[in-house]
């Protein structure tokens, strides 16, 4: 009788050990995504969408036309650059240099190699850059204003991805890193068709965590053939947190570039990400000076206090 009981207990113990090993093996299969079985762990796939297809306040400004929200991805962001890093070590797992988006889909998809081990990764995607020269800090920082020049319409997204059998498909949104300054100029004298523009106290660069770094001054020149109505558009980083940016303009007769023909008073402006900052300079021949207006919401407001140190 004792032998029967011992035999039964041993049999049950063996069965539980076998069952335990089976359960452990099954758990490892599903949590680790055995790569020999491609159906057990699909490749990591990231769907990229465009969040900032239009500037936040585009509807307040007739000179900036709202774009359709259903255009192909490449109409908003023509180029992409991405880098996938190990979340723990920071080491680069895969990096794709700048490439053009050529398809006509409304989103763009990145599919990583099936050989990618499961784990935790940080994906950084830059969009809209004309080339790779503005990337620094191992492609984690973009110089918005190299050498104090106007920026490009660049987009960014960074996301942490956990890749395993339950998580292999993600969607990330690209956001615009710059704003835009629009200057409308009317009634200029006929001999004035060259302008220098300087904007102080804006950020120079941005890192992959959407932190802006700086400050810097940006200089731009512009010319035109007709002085009836002029619109100058400049892509700029946001103003620094410590102070508003200062906008300075000089207008020239091209035959006398050594001395400005007209110099309006400086204006304080606050530039913001994905926003349009709009000014109007209306020259008065009687005053020999400008009336300066700023678009506030959907209303033009005359600027009176121009006492800038």
Subunit arrangement of the protein = single chain
Taking the alpha carbons of the first and last residues, their distance comes to 105 Å
The succession of helices and strands, N to C, reads: HEHEEEEEEEEEEEEEEEEEEE
Largest sheet: 7 strands, mixed
What's the total number of strands?
A: 20
Outline the fold blueprint.
Elements: H1 2-32, E1 45-50, H2 73-76, E2 79-86, E3 92-100, E4 108-111, E5 119-127, E6 135-136, E7 141-143, E8 155-163, E9 169-176, E10 179-186, E11 194-202, E12 205-207, E13 212-213, E14 216-223, E15 229-236, E16 245-252, E17 267-269, E18 276-284, E19 289-296, E20 299-302
Parallel strand pairs: 1-9, 10-18
Antiparallel strand pairs: 1-4, 2-3, 2-5, 5-8, 6-7, 7-12, 8-9, 10-15, 11-14, 11-16, 12-13, 16-17, 18-19, 19-20
Describe the protein in words.
This protein has 309 residues and is mainly β. Helices cover 11% and strands 41% of the residues. The chain is built from two helices and 20 strands. Strands 3-2-5-8-9-1-4 form a seven-stranded mixed β-sheet. A hairpin with a 4-residue loop joins β18 and β19. It starts with a helix and ends in a 7-residue tail after the last strand.
List the defining traits of the structure above.
41% strand; 11% helix; single chain; 2 helices; disordered N terminus; seven-stranded mixed sheet; five-stranded mixed sheet
């Amino acid at each position: 009788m004792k032998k029967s009981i011992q035999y039964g207990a041993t049999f049950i113990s063996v069965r539980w050990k076998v069952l335990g090993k089976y359960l452990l093996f099954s758990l490892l299969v599903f949590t680790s995504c055995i790569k020999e079985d491609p159906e057990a762990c699909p490749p990591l796939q990231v769907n990229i969408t465009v969040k900032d297809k239009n500037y936040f306040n585009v509807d307040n400004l007739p000179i900036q036309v709202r774009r359709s929200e259903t255009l192909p991805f490449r109409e908003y962001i023509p180029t992409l650059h991405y880098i996938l890093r190990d979340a723990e070590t920071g080491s680069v797992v895969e990096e794709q240099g700048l490439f053009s988006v050529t398809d006509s889909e409304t989103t763009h998809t990145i599919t990583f190699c099936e050989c990618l081990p499961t784990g935790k990764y940080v994906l950084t995607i830059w969009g809209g850059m004309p080339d790779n020269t503005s990337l620094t800090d191992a492609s984690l920082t973009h110089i918005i204003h190299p050498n104090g020049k106007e920026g490009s319409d660049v987009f960014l997204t960074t996301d942490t991805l956990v890749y395993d059998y339950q998580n292999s498909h993600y969607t990330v949104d690209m956001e615009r890193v710059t704003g835009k300054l629009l200057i409308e100029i009317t009634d200029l004298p006929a001999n004035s068709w060259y302008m220098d523009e300087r904007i102080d106290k804006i950020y120079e660069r941005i890192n992959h965590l959407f932190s802006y770094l700086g400050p810097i001054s940006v200089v731009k020149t512009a010319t035109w053939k007709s002085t009836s109505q002029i619109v100058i558009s400049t892509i700029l980083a946001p103003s620094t947190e410590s102070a508003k940016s200062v906008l300075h303009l000089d207008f020239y007769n091209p035959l006398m570039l050594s001395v400005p023909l007209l110099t309006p008073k400086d204006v304080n402006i606050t530039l913001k990400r994905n926003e349009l900052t709009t000014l109007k300079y209306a020259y008065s021949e009687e005053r020999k000076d400008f009336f300066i207006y700023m678009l506030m919401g959907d209303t033009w407001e005359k600027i009176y206090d121009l006492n800038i140190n």
